[in-house]
Amino acid sequence: MAYWLMKSEPNVNSYDDVVARGVPEEWHSVRNYTARNNMKAMQLGDEAFFYHSNIGKEIVGIIKVVALAHPDSTAEPNENGKIVWECVDVLPVKKLPKPVTLETIKRTPELADMALVRLSRLSVSPVTDAEWKLICKMGGL
DNA sequence: GCCAACGTTGGC
DNA sequence: GCCAACGTTGGC
Question: pTM score > 0.90 for this model?
Answer without folding.
Answer: yes
